Amino acid sequence: MGVSEGILLGMGNPLLDISAVVDQDFLNKYDIKLNNAILAEEKHFPMYEEMAKNYKVEFIAGGATQNSIKVAQWMLQFPGATSYIGCIGKDKFGEEMKKNCKLAGVNVRYYEDESTPTGTCAVCVLGGERSLVANLSAANCYKSDHLRKQANWALVEKAKYFYIAGFFLTVSPDSIQLVAEYAAATNKVFTMNLSAPFICEFFRDAQEKVLPYVDFVFGNETEARTFSRVHGWETKNVKEIAIKISQWPKASGTYKRITVITQGEDPVVVAEDGNVRTFPVTPLPKEKLVDTNGAGDAFVGGFMSQLVQKKPIEECVRAGCYASNVVIQRSGCTYPEKPDFE
């Protein structure tokens, strides 16, 4: 099996998901588009309260990277196989999150900010599709000083694989760079996600700076097309875009870059070495779909659970699709007690 303690480390924005099925009027009122992810602006601040008041709300520990790490941990069923770093507030939500991750078997090392509340993410669900509006709060306060502390850097040294969602580029690009350069120097595997159209568009410089270090790039079709447009590639063909991303210059020649793009119920696109392979997704009857919140995160978690065991790409994709399929049949990025992945 070859799984060791702390083999996979994630860094990102730990957020408490405030999830509710809403209506189109609510989406219109706050200018929210389905299948998107944005950072909250001032106009969005009242929506959290309004959701809690007018809709049936669930509180679920979330944050893209944290979701993926928890799913990988669940798939691996090996205590402490995964670790996670991020920033929370010293408050009730933060305590909940800590409890939730410990129960999930993840070794969390949060930086706790005294003066800022734990970050939240409104998950607006309509017709099974989700839209995310993140109020980062404490998650935005992560500093690389925390990462450099010996006890925390030890987690980096212990890990052989790293996963960081693109969302963390808005918070601590220097922390990402530290880990990316370390991974390249020590021949460890460094993976990231495009995460959202706004990251590709407005955090382009930070994204481009780290891209040479990324061995696996994950994303969905919307993010891939935004990346293509921002870079003037003039193609909307996901296969072509995946190849172009995989051919982006690399800082280290140890691993060839592999691009993995999910497309909802359409096949997963994997590009490496100038070639593309597609893998069909197990279709799910519409009546079984609860919500797509965490679907992409779960895919990465499933994928990484096999990658750290050095399984072939097709197995990684199969595990990603399995985990994703489980999560979309439940509210938020949650899962049953044990996986039944063969």
Description:
- Helices cover 38% and strands 24% of the residues.
- It has a nine-stranded mixed sheet, with helices on both faces.
- It is globular.
- The two termini are 14 Å apart.
- The model has no long low-confidence stretch (mean pLDDT 95).
- It catalyses: adenosine + ATP = AMP + ADP + H(+).
- One of its GO terms (cellular component) is nucleus.
- It holds the Pfam family PfkB.
- Belongs to the carbohydrate kinase PfkB family.
**Major sheet attributes:** 9 strands, mixed
Secondary-structure element string: EEHEHEHEHEEEHHEHEHHEHHEEEHH
Give the averaged pLDDT, no decimals.
Answer: 95
How many beta-strand elements? 14
**Helical proportion, percent range:** 25-40%
* Lateral arrangement of strands in the main beta sheet: 6-5-1-9-10-11-12-13-14
- Label the structural class: alpha/beta
Number of helices: 13
Uncertain ranges: none
Amino-to-carboxy terminus distance: 14 Å
Gross geometry = globular
Estimated radius of gyration: 18 Å
Question: Strand percentage, roughly?
Answer: 15-25%
InterPro entries: Adenokinase, Carboh/pur_kinase_PfkB_CS, PfkB_dom, Ribokinase-like
EC number: 2.7.1.20
Function: ATP dependent phosphorylation of adenosine and other related nucleoside analogs to monophosphate derivatives. Essential to sustain methyl recycling.
Pathway: Purine metabolism; AMP biosynthesis via salvage pathway; AMP from adenosine: step 1/1
